[in-house]
Amino acid sequence: MNEIIQAVFQAIELIVELDPKLIQITKLSLYISLTATLIGSLIAIPIGGIIYYYEFRGKRTLVNLIQTLYSVPTVIVGLFLFLLISQQGPLGFLRLLFTPTGMIIGQILLILPLLIGLTITSLVGVSTQIRELAISLGASTYQTIITIIKEARYAIMGTVILGFGRAISEVGVAILIGGNIRGFTRTFTTAISLETSRGNLVLSIALGFILLSLSLIVNLLLNYLQGKD
Amino acid sequence: MHIIELDEIYKNYGKLQVLKNINLQIEKGTSTALVGPTGSGKTIMLRLIDLLEKPSSGTIYFEGTDANGSNNTRLDIRRQIGMVFQKPLAFKASVYDNIAYGLKIRGQKENMDRKIKELLELIDLPGYENRNALKLSGGETQRLALARAMITDPKLLLLDEPTANLDPISKKKLEELILKINRESETTIIMTTHDLLQGQKLADRMVILYNGQVLQSGTPNQIFRTPKNRFVADFIGIENIMCGTIENSSNGLVKIKTDLITVFAVTEKEGKVHFAIRPDEITISREKVQTSARNTIQGNVNEIIDTGSLIKLLVDAGEIFTVFITRESLSELNISTGTSIWLYFKASAVHVF
């Protein structure tokens, strides 16, 4: 027990001292997950807008499928992508395995269903009256979708933050695609799992603290945005 | 050319037929009120004209162009029409951005600040540019909606029960605003209302709708003076509606016999008819006097109802007549329940339909 308490204090020391190893891992994790969230959102929000706006056969099934993929295990996505981009895989020539770019792609795949699905939910929350208001004021289809996305902006920002939360905390893609290479593809989650198995509790706890604080910030932001809606 | 023409319009929702064979032409620069009780099809007519929905059959022409064309044609027409919905509604944005919306999506940004400032003065919300539109009251939001619809100078302005959700003061303000727009601009206005008096106040033409059909259309005066049938008469609140049979037609002057009384009237009609006498066309006295009125009937006061401004008398003269008198006349003539009085009205005041 004493050991653990000691480790906690040493971990706090590491954070306060801005330990280079710690900073390096934090920076890389943020870079990968923020990029994945940004690109993922740029893809997902328009797709969500289009699925929301148009009525077509199989729409309900499609939405159900997307919602099912919210909780797809991260290692499954990791495995799927691994098979695609490993040397023998169809996209092997891109040499993305064990690179940050590969991890970004993996995290995009991971959070895309969540981003698309919750974008649709956010837009459905905007009343049809607002939609008709835009149309009656002379908005084209494209302008109407943009208007509705603007109306749902706080809910959509919440969606994006949730996506980031899933990306930063996942471990399956990071370990399978990134490979946990020190200084190159080592993130919070892979570092924690490695250091813990090695018995290096201090670094693990320090990383855990930072990850928890990030989760807290994400949650506070989310609460703030939900309050605005 | 008519700005809007509805040609044999039908609208069904599943098996429910909400509009039946609507034929209507709207002249440029006029203001028309679609009047009818809830569920009569007024709102859906407005939505069809705003091209928010398509008719099940029939054609809508906007300035002679068939509006059932490509999406681009419909967008192009819709951009010449402004609409204010019944429910006060605003985008989640500032007052300025709400009003600017129509201009922005049309890419017409020149003089936008000035136009918005002028409109805010017109709707009596000066200096409200940076306010959050969602924090406005219902009446303010509805005036905002009017400004938002007007900023693009639409050729046609559609108002769907614009005052239905408002308190009396907000209602009055909005009505004055609509009158002002109608007087000062060339904009054609079509509004719906279930309030006949509002229609009379704000429109030069009224279209009475019931069960998805046009029962009558004409100037408010025509409709009040000569309701086409029993429903219109009931709806516009005409009292003293009776039915009887026409006898002794000569030179247009006829006798109409109900089961209980005989009334002189002027009409070309024959046989069984309805007729109505507006309460304000009936004069009364305690003792019988000589007047030029053809109809003189004696009756007893059944009930005295204080309506606030006027006193309403229900008089049993065989048929029950409704008469309005002032509070002063009531005490002057010393009328109480059971008092015997004389009723007088001209033959020309009897409206036969």
Protein model, in words:
The complex is a heterodimer of chains A (229) and B (353). Chain A has 229 residues and is mostly helical. Chain A has one domain (2-228): MetI-like fold (Orthogonal Bundle), CATH 1.10.3720. Chain A contains eleven helices and no strands. Chain A is globular, with a radius of gyration of 20 Å. The N and C termini of chain A lie far apart (46 Å). Chain B is an alpha+beta fold. Chain B folds into two domains: 4-93 and 154-234, P-loop containing nucleotide triphosphate hydrolases (Rossmann fold); 241-352, OB fold (Dihydrolipoamide Acetyltransferase, E2P) (Beta Barrel). Chain B has ten helices and 20 strands. Chain B is elongated, with a radius of gyration of 25 Å. Chain A binds chain B through residues 129-130, 132-141, 143, 147, 150-151, 153, and chain B through 50, 52, 71, 75, 78-79, 81-83, 85, 87, 89, 91-93, 101-102, 105-106, 148-149, 152.
Low-confidence parts of chain A lasting 5 or more residues at pLDDT below 50?
none
**SSE arrangement of chain B, N to C:** EEEHEEHEHHHEHEHEEHHEEEEEEEEHEE
CATH architectural label of the largest domain in chain B: 3-Layer(aba) Sandwich
Helix tally of chain A equals 11
Give the oligomer, counting copies of the same chain as homo and different chains as hetero: heterodimer
Percent range for β-strand residues of chain B: 35-45%
Search tags:
heterodimer; A: 229 residues; mainly alpha; MetI-like fold; 78% helix; B: Rossmann fold; OB fold (Dihydrolipoamide Acetyltransferase, E2P); 2 domains; six-stranded mixed β-sheet; five-stranded antiparallel β-sheet; 10 helices; 35% strand; elongated
